[in-house]
Amino acid sequence: MSRCRWVVFGVLAIGYILVYFHRLCTAVVANDMMRDLEAGATLAGFLAAAYFYPYALMQIPAGLLADSWGPRKTISLFLVIAAGGSVLLGAAQGPSLAIAGRTLVGAGVAMLFVATLKVLTRWFTAREFPAMASALIVVGGVGSLSATAPFAWLSEWLGWRASFVSIGLATIAVAAAVWLFVRDTPADAGLPPIADAPGEAAPPAGVLAAVVTVLRRPAFWPLAVWFFFDLAVFFSFAGLWGGPYLEHVYGIDKAHAGRVLAMYAIGMIVGAPLWSFAQTRIGMRHKPLLVVSSACLMGITAVWAFYTGTLPLEAQYGMCLGLGVFSNAIAGIVFAATKELFPTAIAGTALGLVNFFPFMGGAVFQPVLGAVLEPYEVAKGVFSAEGYQRAFLVLLACSAAALLAALCMQERGRKA
Q1: Tens digit of each residue's pLDDT (9 = 90 or more) over 260-310
Q2: How far apart (Å, rounded) are the C-alpha atoms in residues 285 and 277?
Q3: Of 378, 243, 211, 252, nearest to 320 (Cα)?
Q4: Is-contact 275 285, C-beta < 8 A?
C-alpha cells in the first residue's frame, strides 16, 4: 500500500508540474513569440490568456468527469489533448493557430487538479490529506520554476517552437504514465481501502442545486473576489509580462530574466508549507492570514508601480520571491476556507466553483495589461518604463481589491 500510493502521487505530481509549466511558460519567451508571430502587446496578452479561459470554464466539468468517468481516464485523455495543443503552438505560423494551440493546452491540463484531489482522498487518510494538498502546491512551485530559467535555457538551445513541441511529447509520456501506473482507488490495484477515507457524498438535490447553494452563500463571494484579483496579479506578471518588463526596462537577456523570475517559484515552494504551518500548527485563522498576505502583495505592487524604472535589478529577485510567497503560495488557505463554509456533500462543488475565479482573473488582466502597454511601444515589441508603470498601477488596483475582499471574509461559525 505504502509503495503503491507514493507511485500514484509521484506520477500525478509530475503531471501537475506540467500544469504549472504550461500556465506560466509564456513569460520567458513572450518577446520571441511576439516577434515571430508578428503580434502586438494586446494580441500577446490574448495568446497567453487563451490558456486561462478554457481552464476556468472546465473546472465544473472536471469534477463531473472525475466522478462519472474516473480520474485516471480523465487525466490521461486530456493530457493527450494538452500535448496536441503544445505541438500546435510550436508549429503555428500565425497568431490564430497559436491561440488555438494554447486553448487546447488550457482545456487539457484543466482536468488534472480536481481529479488529482479526488484520487488523493482515496489513497490517503483524512489526517494525511491536508499535507498532501500542500505538497501538491509545492509541486506546482517546481512546475513554476521549470517555466523560468530552465525553459529560457531550453528555448535558447532549441528555439521556442521546438521547445513547445518537445514539451508536447513529454506531456504524452506523462499521459501514458498516468494510464499505466495510476489507479483511482486502492481497490482498483487489488488493495484494501484506506480505513478512514471519506465516502462518496453526492449533493442530495443534484449538481445544479449544489451550484445554486454555493453561489447564494454570501460568505463564498469574498473568497471568489479575492481569488480573482489576487491571482490576476500573479498570473499577469509571472505568466506573461514579468519577462518583457525585466528585458525592456533593465536591458537583460532572456536567460537572466528567467533567473529573476525563478524566485517567484521558490516563493511558492517555501511559502506554501509556511502558510500551512501557520494555520495547522500555530492555529491562525484563515482571515488574518489572507489579510496579511494581501497587504504584503499590495506593498509589492506599489513598489513596482512607483519605482518602475529606478528599483535596482537585485531588488527584483526579492520582489519576485515575495510575489510567490504572498500570492499563489497561500491559495491552499483559500481552498481550506471554502471547504469549511459548506457541508461535505457540496464541498467539491464549492472548490470547483472557487477555482474558476483565479483563472478568469488571469484571462481578463493579461490582455488588459497588453492594451495598457501598446501606446508606449518604443520599438517593435518593446515598451517603455512609463508603459510598465501604467500596467503596474492596474495591478496595484487589483491587489487593493484583493485586500478589501480579505477584510470582508467571514470565518466559519459566523453568520453568513
Answers
A1: 988 988 998 888 888 877 776 655 678 899 999 999 999 999 999 999 988
A2: 11
A3: 243
A4: no
Helices 344-354 and 331-341, packing angle to 10 deg = 140
Residue carrying the nine cell digits 481552498: 335
Query: Which amino acid would we find at residue 90?
Result: G
What confidence tens digit (pLDDT) does each residue in 366-408 have? 889 989 999 998 888 789 999 999 999 999 999 999 999 999 9
Nearest alpha carbon to residue 323 among 235, 248, 222: 235
Nearest to 51 by CA among 107, 9, 11, 2: 107
Q: Say if residue 324 is exposed, middle or buried (CB neighbours under 10 Å; 0-12, 13-18, 19+).
A: buried
Please give the radius of gyration of the chain, using alpha carbons only, rounded to the nearest integer.
21
Quote the Cα angle for 248-254-256, to 5°.
Answer: 95
What is d(CA 279, CA 236) in angstroms, rounded to the nearest whole number? 28
Residues 211, 217, 220, CA angle at the centre, nearest 5°? 90
Contacts of 277 (CB under 8 A, 6+ apart): none
Determine the Cα–Cα distance for residues 149 and 146; give it in Å rounded to an integer. Answer: 7
Domain boundaries, the chain: 7-184+203-407
Grid cell locating 84: 496536441
Domain 7-184+203-407 has CATH 1.20.1250.20: yes
Count how many residues are written for the chain: 416
d(CA 122, CA 186): 7
